[in-house]
Design brief:
Length: about 475
Amino acid sequence: MKNTDGRGTQSRRSYLKRSAIGAGVTVLPSYLTAARKEGDKLPPSERINLGCVGVGGRGSNVIRSLAGSGARPVAFCDLDFELPRAVKSVVKAYPDVPRFNDFRVMIETMDKDIDAVSVAIPDHSHYPAAILAMSMGKHVYVEKPLTRTFEESEILMRAEKKYGVVTQMGNQGHTGNGINLFGKMVDMGLCDGITRMAAWKTPGLWFMKKNERISLPLVKGTVPASLNTYDLWCGPRRKLPYNDLYHPFNWRGFYEYGMGMLGDWGAHIVDFPHDKLDMGLPTEIKAIHMEDHNKVFYPLESYLSMHFPARGKNRPAIDMTWHDGPNCWPEVPKQFWEKDQNGKPLRPRLNGGGTLLYSDEGDLAILRGNHADIPRLIPRDQHIRYYDELKEGSKADKGSGKHFSSFVRACKGEGQTNSPFSISGKLSQVLALGTIGQYMNTELEFDPVKKQFIGNDEANLLLNPPARAGWEEFYKMA
């Protein structure tokens, strides 16, 4: 569905023209556009032409997966076609696809040739690329986390309704048998009365390794010659002095541009219960322990809690903890332990990232890993007790297919996506609130109706930090 607001469209187009001039970006000639080649007569119902924002790194995997699901790349956009991992292999695989440095120019120039847009770039630039594409009637696939800030997710959820396009966030495990089985557990009443949720992730990123932590203040680096423009890389966020860790990958560890481990893996770990138990937004966020805390990059270890209020019958309040770093595994209450052949209690084995859901008075808990991992009941005799019914649940809704193919099918009008912005936007807001808790390193009270912190102006500013000059228009599109 195209935007029919003439005045808004004209304003956006005028802004885009001004932006393109200021960016000094060149594009390849239009005769190289694959979608315009003579003889391409496929009707729209049989093809999805894909504009790709982000070609290297994670973007390369997204492009291959969507192409393998029936989408056809017709435009590539990246600020660096040299340095990011795998970018050259993608360009080699699609040599005739035109390349752009500015997503604004790509979407405007290729408007009539693009049906959908994939966004796989640093977290802080997800929002402007997504909202622009949506405002021009394009379906959008955006890597997790959906946005860097709370308000950006709020706007994208409004835009989803306003523009009527297909949306999907890239938390791949939210499509498939794992989420189906968890939904079955909910339907069976196995999740009734849950009051506690422990979520954890072992360290893996540079800022979580003592030997890779950097000192403050940051040392100014040299912008790589392959990076088209650092100003455009910063997008709507502050243009800080360049640091060598920002590009092409380690930006994730900095508050200004990324969401740390919580944003990176939280979308793959807490997504099942947040969606299926309708957890909504928390009313309290407490920083329990932030090791080596500062306000530039994320802690060496993060341990925080969130309180989610009751949501009606069989849905009491849930206290959730998030712990990332070494020794992040939660204590599992003894009633959920196994016993060996001699009756000796055995602590359940926990993997590198996952969730444990239970109530203190319950006789079973639900244990799950991450991504597409299948949830299971513990202790094991409880899973065996419900095995037959759960087995049928794991086979349900196989038509949902894989995460990428479900997006492509939905773009063709066949079914729906499992993680549209109406679902993933709320999850991303929870992750954004968590990062504010990490940054502030204190106790915060949040009003989920007014969507504001109570009595903390600094925290409220972080919900919707002002856009950098030249990017304000993106925050008026929905």
